[in-house]
């Protein structure tokens, strides 16, 4: 659930309940009762055994020789038989309890695996507490926080880098870097932050390329481990105009090239180049989140050496005096992506599909939009052709989808494994916010509509009058970040609201408003954060150690 920047290009809507919904649900349960009683035993006759006349042994019935009491009868004086029925009852009870325990353990493991899967996605969260409150907060020093596994990293003025535990906010380590302006990455929202080392770039020279009297390098790259220890450092040589830290131990550099600026992705310490791109053609300048800037010039007219690099949410933003561009982690221009193809890595952008399938999108030369989607088998042969453009969710449930949605005309759900068209609706939704195995949530006009993924049956809808900025999910709830409190137009333009809705029936579970300084509500490492220009705040919710922790 389209790579559009929803922070600025959002649809004006207010969440208004269409019907009153009962928050209480009866949990259906199957019939229960005590275990079946054991069958009755036949009582052995009492008193002396009557005399019998000797008879020949019938070899066809060996039991008459082995069991004088006859079939179905027991010798009450045989101690080996006294425990038989009670023992079976005890054994059955043990097996029943053991089976229930095993089922609970298996169910817990499945639920934990599901929570892991959801939280690992972009926009995914661990189960969120009702009306979450700040768990911890810390000043950011006006710099956007960075992150490595289990830690939020804050760069303070003067080159002091502090890492805090992502769950508790406790200080884990501090490190002192050379004096200058330092930026560390990957940033808090980078989807590739997991497993990445911390890379910091310090700008020490007032003018790029002039050097410094100590070592001659105006830009210094430093790599730190998870304890704050220095792994290594490298000075960037002459001709490097700017640099920005990236995930996966990389750094982006900008240098002069033939006729323009060349951006290179290279190893932070060894400088080994992995790819490079030339910045060609003037475009409308954008800010760090890909939105139009404030109109101020990126540099002084006539200067060709002014370059700004910034990495945010896994995208590299490049701006020069007369041009700008945004690149994804693979080095592709993000602006060239189809608007309906969703975030990088969606099923229309090389992401996984059920059945080890893939897609090929054919675009219309005139509009640049996809008009045919071919589903390809593992052998590369076309298995299914779907007319329309891919409609990819902003957030998912974390599993390769079996059902995909395309638009034009209307929007249609297809089962890519069987090749069947499952459902079709005569609407033109703007955004597919979320798709799980059970529910699809789209924004269409001034409505939020939830459909059953496999049938297209409408589950619920709500009218909207505030701006939806972005969405998150923990697998059971849909969290919407809006301007205002999610129900009324915001009296304060800086007000930000969070509304949590039940994914399956649409009823509002809780809502919270952040007034005053503008808050950026984000999901990182499976947790909910509010970030301002001056501080980062973790909002109360579950964690990996205890997913119900608040």
Automatic annotation (TrEMBL):
Under the heading InterPro entries, the entry gives: PQQ_rpt_dom, Quinoprotein_ADH-like_sf, WD40/YVTN_repeat-like_dom_sf
Spans through the membrane: 88-110
Q: Which residues form the Pyrrolo-quinoline quinone repeat domain?
A: 368-548
Ranges for the region named Disordered are 19-81, 281-300
Q: Does the keyword Chloroplast apply?
A: no
Q: Which UniProt keywords apply?
A: Membrane, Transmembrane, Transmembrane helix
Which SUPFAM superfamilies does the UniProt record give? Quinoprotein alcohol dehydrogenase-like
Q: Where is the composition biased (Basic and acidic residues)?
A: 56-65
Q: Keyword Iron-sulfur on this protein?
A: no
Q: What is this protein called?
A: PQQ-binding-like beta-propeller repeat protein
- Naturally occurring in which organism (per UniProt): Oerskovia douganii
